[in-house]
From TrEMBL:
Family membership noted in the UniProt record: Belongs to the ALAD family.
EC numbers for this chain: 4.2.1.24
Catalytic activity: 2 5-aminolevulinate = porphobilinogen + 2 H2O + H(+)
Functional pathway: Porphyrin-containing compound metabolism; protoporphyrin-IX biosynthesis; coproporphyrinogen-III from 5-aminolevulinate: step 1/4
Keywords, comma-separated and alphabetical: Heme biosynthesis, Lyase, Porphyrin biosynthesis
GO MF terms held by the record: porphobilinogen synthase activity
Protein name: Delta-aminolevulinic acid dehydratase
Amino acid sequence: MSLPPLASYPALRLRRLRQADWIRRLVRESVLTPADLIWSMVVHEGDGEVPVASMPGVSRLSVKDCAKAAIEARKLGIPAIAIFPHIDGSKKDAAGSLAADPNGVIATVVKAMKDAAPEVGIMCDVALDPFTDHGHDGIIENGKIANDPTIERLVEQALVQAKAGCDILAPSDMMDGRCAALRSALEAEGLQDVMIMSYAAKFASAFYGPYRDAIGSGKLGTLGPSDKKTYQMDSANTEEALREVALDIAEGADMVMVKPGMPYLDIVSRVVEEFHMPTFAFQVSGEYAMIMAAAQNGWIDEERAILESLGAFKRAGAAGIISYFAPRAARMLGA
Ligand code: PBG
């Protein structure tokens, strides 16, 4: 950037524009509003709320309460909800068979939420891990996560979600070629309005820890590899993240996502700069837990930390943020 000759101190005093709230608001470069938020929500098959121990303030909700939450989202001006299932351990198997159950909890909750608040967008995770007994996002063959057989299962799962009324399919599995397979299956079924937000740059991360607690996914390694590093990305890589995003866009993704969020803001900013696509970031379970743990110890100011962390995504150029803080943040923002 070429600048005109700058005045310097004392004529130039940058603090002049920070002296009062009104002028700070006037020169603010990015703004967080409830319309930037996607509410991350966990549904279970039972009744009532089940608090998630590692995520204070987050509970697994019943189908009925998810429908009520959709009405709450509408009231708060939150445009969309991302829904994740907690499945009873006894119903899981190695193939994640229940992922494509047309009468399963996801199909049921999507219908209930669309009935309750049709104006609120519903996004479903396309991945097998809530349904597999080994906790991996794919089918295991010869000790490895098998790419192409997994895609076939993902397509079945996604079609069930789309037919139930899901607006946005969000493949989070990181198999190669899944966006193309989803897009052509949607076309073939006359579901061309269904959007795809791909978890394009999804990193193998320690920050997903509390999510396993939330969805009741056991420790990896008993029945398959002990981590997800053969399909999720190496956290050291930027160029590869850009290749992943390029590929998903070419395959028909309408929006792309970077995940986790806060430790990967550089990736968010690079993706926005390179592709000019609606780019979202997922402030994941571990980021939520980290803020809450520090706040509950009195080490940071909870509300300020929540809004500052969400605002940082907007500064980085994100179109929006998937977050467990969405309803609280929307309330704090005066919705
Ligand atoms: C599953 C999936 C994960 C998350 C969303 N979808 C976990 C994982 O990939 O291991 C994490 C969400 C969170 O931590 O909040 N494919």
